[in-house]
Amino acid sequence: MLVPEPTIICVDCGGRCHLLTQPREDGEWLPGDIVAYRCEDCRDRWDLVLPDDDEDGSGDRAY
């Protein structure tokens, strides 16, 4: 099951960014969902797109 990390590392300052976005009402996360994080140190916000299962680098891709 696809679940975003509760915290990530801030690219700008190296601090901890905490997940702001809540899951859908059914509790599921889907590929392509946009999730937001806020850094506790520099207060930067990061919006990330949840990847497809095929985007883990192990599958073949057509370009």
The separation of the N and C termini measures: 27 Å
Helical content stands at under 10%
Mean pLDDT: 87
User: Over all CA atoms, what is the radius of gyration?
Assistant: 13 Å
Topology:
Layout: E1 7-9, E2 16-19, E3 34-39, E4 45-49
Question: What does it look like?
Answer:
The protein is 0% helix and 29% strand. With 63 residues, it is mostly beta strands. It has a four-stranded antiparallel beta sheet with strand order 1-2-3-4, with no helix packed on it. It is elongated, with a radius of gyration of 13 Å.
Features:
63 residues; mainly beta; four-stranded antiparallel beta sheet; 0% helix; 29% strand; elongated; disordered C terminus
Précis, in short:
The protein has 63 residues and is mainly β. It is 0% helix and 29% strand.
